[in-house]
Amino acid sequence: MPSVLLLLAMHAPDGLFSLSVNLTFGLVVVLLIGRACAALARSHDQRLVPLMGLMAAFVFAGQMVNFPISSGTTGHLLGGTLAAILLGPWAATVVMAAVILFQALLGDGGLTALGPNIFNMGIVGTCLAYFVYRVFVGPAFHKPARVVAASFFAAWLSVPLASVFVSLQLAVSGTVTLARALPAMVLTHMVIGVGEALITAGVVAFVVRTRPDLLYDRPAGTSRRVGRLAAIVGLAASLVVATGLSLLPRLWDFPDGLESVGFQKGFLYEEPALAADGIVEAFSAYPLGVRLALHDGRVTATQRYEQQASPLMPGDVIERIESTPVTDLAAAAQALGFAPAENRFALPPGQPVHLRVARAGRELELVFPAAATPAAGAAKSRFALLPDYTVPGLTGLLSTSLAGAIGTLAMFVLAFVAGRALVRPIAPSACAAAHASGGPTHA
Amino acid sequence: MHEKSLTRTAAPLTLLEQLDARVKIVCALSWAICVVTIRRTDLPLVATYAALLAALLVSQRRSVGQCLRRFATALPAIAMLVVLLPFFKEGTVLWQLGPLEVTREGLYAAQRLATCAALCVGVLALVWVTTPEAELIAGLRRLGLPALFVGVLAFMLRYLHVLRPELHRLWDARAARTIGRRRPPFRSATNLLGALALRAHGRAERVADAMAARGYAGQWPVSHAHDPPARATLAAVLFVSVVVLLRILL
User: Fold this and answer.
1) What is the CATH number of the domain that holds A192?
2) How many CB atoms lie within 10 A of CB A257?
């Protein structure tokens, strides 16, 4: 549901972003478009304006083509990356700005939101994506597979990148909080981006097969060593960025979607933190909806799991569970039926738990109703949509970072496979047909 | 769009149609800025703006229907956002629909968004319907937008009418070749778009050649044929000041 909202937020109407956001991004866009126009005007290429105008019309018309993606789902092109690959980043920025301005005049996207809209779809989709494309191709413009794979990757990346900017703008405008917007936005746009990437790479593959001279970048006479260096630097840079992104879920303490379901259904428990001598230092007491840790010799609730409605607050000192006095974590674990070796609670589901806690100097008697136990299902679920991947056998940040790096490598491999598949030679008759279809000869 | 150019020659122009495109663009922009700063509780202001918009619309006589149609085509996307926003904003939960929650803050935000978007889209529909494309382009140029940018916009508007039928021809040709296939493969769709890109490029080259043959050297003459009559400019100044004053007073 949120994904649709945010998909539409790419063409933000008036009133979605605050005036300050609109003005700030408007200023940035005006400066960048001015810079682009000045740079292009200096080239004194008279053929540029008709070419850019026709390409703008092409992008506009191309956005109307619906692509069959899977059963019943269709996607359409945004076109920023494609324009950048064909025209270069500056010309593509101007082209996209013209397209978006025209759409705004037609009522698709607000007049005051032009700044953020052009920035998200125009500048991120063209300049940033083009940078990624160049880094990925290196000097290997004579290798069709590399070019197509690079366009696939750049087009894919441009969509989640744009979504990051949209959620930042939404958050600064006070429309939706960052914690809610960013994970939903990035995740859905990672999926949407695959459609954009497939279409862009498909069109680039067609152009590479039929008229490779139309690409903005000509094969450069750089040495093979420089090419390899560029590829390595590009890969390293993407790895760093992706690893950083993969650490994002750590910003949100709630579990991701799968974990949330696991906790609710009672088949998943968090690994307890064990000290060197095997003593439990902290563990997630899911029946209580909190994480328990040892603080100054007392067992304290340190963190609340928001997917469970728990009367316990972080900072509460647990004094007694049922009739068992709680002096250390082992006792608490035992009272809750927690078996560290099996890593699960043996507490019978549906049974109320009586607790005596100290909160700010006051003694409280808390009764956890049956509904609070995980097996009975949590009342309210909230989870981070970006999953917090880990590598088995490792824990903590290292594990997440490694998982992010592996994910990035997998994406690269996918891009290469897609590139190879798309540039495989097609039947000569189809090539001939493509050449022959020049259209009417009058202008 | 053809309809627009035909009605243009048919009857005496309304005041809005006589207005210079620059004036209309500036008016629309200041209107949009005033509207965006509206708070949810400014109901008298919203009512006044809506009445103003309705009065402008009715003054268009012949093109009322056209304006309304233009307005209606922009509505679905906005309506979708307005419907979804209440589920998405954090705040006091009013109703729970399974995993979805409708919050009071979300409803307020949706109400505000609907108001802003409708008022702005309404004015844009008026501007679009009452201004021929050529005048709109000239107006943007004379407002100081870079010549290159405006040139791209002009070519886009001109050749969109050419590329769109071209796309349909490609589409029809493909449908004719793939008789009996209900769902054409993905790759053939990208090939079709690629072919369109090549055609657009080829046409751009021919257009550039034709322009060079007619003496184009990188500059367009700026037309001053449509300098606004003083009366119209005065009306526009009045309009902007009324809109801004209303915003301040109400």
Assistant:
1) 1.10.1760.20
2) 15
CB distance from B244 to chain A under 8 Å?
no
A74-132 residue pLDDT tens: 556 788 999 999 998 889 999 999 999 998 888 888 889 999 999 998 898 898 898 88
Answer yes or no: are the C-beta atoms of B219 and B148 closer than 8 Å: no
AA identity, residue B35: V
**Domain limits for position A175:** 2-252+402-436
Is B160 close to A57, i.e. CB distance below 8 A? Answer: yes
Which of B87, B127, B158 is facing A1, going by the closest CB pair?
B87
Using the Cβ of A418 and the Cβ atoms of chain B, whether some distance falls under 8 Å is answered with: no
What total of structural domains would you count in chain A?
Answer: 2
Task: With CB atoms and an 8 Å threshold, state whether B204 touches A47.
Answer: yes
The reply to whether A53 touches chain B by the CB within 8 Å rule is: yes
Task: Say if residue A237 is exposed, middle or buried (CB neighbours under 10 Å; 0-12, 13-18, 19+).
Answer: middle
A271 to chain B, closest Cα gap in Å? 27
Residue with tokens 């990051």: A164
CATH of the domain at A308: 2.30.42.10
The answer to whether residue A442 neighbours chain B at the CB level (below 8 Å) is yes
Q: Return the residue matching tokens 């769009």.
A: B1
Cβ within 8 Å of residue A180, ≥6 positions away: B88, B90
**Inter-chain touch A49–B120, beta carbons under 8 Å:** no
Q: Mean pLDDT, consecutive 10-residue segments, chain B of 250 residues?
A: 50 74 88 87 88 89 86 84 78 74 84 90 91 88 88 92 92 80 72 92 94 82 63 79 84
Residues in B touching A65 (Cβ below 8 Å): 167, 189, 192-193
> Could you tell me if A411 and A368 lie in one domain?
no
CA dihedral B222, B226, B228, B229 (to 10 degrees): 140
